[in-house]
Amino acid sequence: MSRAGHPAAVEVAAQLDYYLVYANARARDRALPPEGIVLEEFVLRPDGTTSALDSAGWTAAGGTWWSAVAFSRGLRTDARLRARVTPADRAGAQTAYQTACGAKLPAEPELRRHFLDRLELPASAPSPLVPTQTTTERRIYRVLLAGELPEPGREALRSGWRMQPFDRVDDAAHRIAGRTRRTLDGQTVTWTLRQVGTEADWAVDLSTDRSDDSSTPTLAPC
13-24: per-residue pLDDT in tens? Predict the structure, then answer.
């Protein structure tokens, strides 16, 4: 999911990001075999901001690997292209790869060798995280997600964040897709993946204990 530009600066994520690419949106919705796989990995600066995106694609017909820089750029700007793609975990990518060519998907160090080109991203200051709701005990920060978030994407987030089952009594409208809680530097932090607005709008609500000795508490990196 991300790779540090400096070995000691940012922890390297355990896995790449995988996408299954279908012939069209109908083929994706009918769960037909995908045409190929795209791999991505963000490159991070020492301060944790994103500096670039590495990517590579594999096509089942012919079994060839190709530079996916243009594809990755289009995936973030072209709604038609996004309709042909669904995120997958490594197991899902392995199943698609093995079904298409009968071989095991190579290990991730080997897959990274197919990152021939790099999409450089402009440097910019991180956006300030401003609480949307504050009480005497808690602060709640809302991060809106861009674009649609279909069930495979929600499942990928729940899995990546190790979200535990939650009590539906607290969710009468059934708009919460997952929740997890951790303690960081003595501060309780809760992530809630929820639907907001229309069915296509999703957000992550990050709630933290409110510090008594600081008007702007510092969130430890997770």
Answer: 457 999 999 999
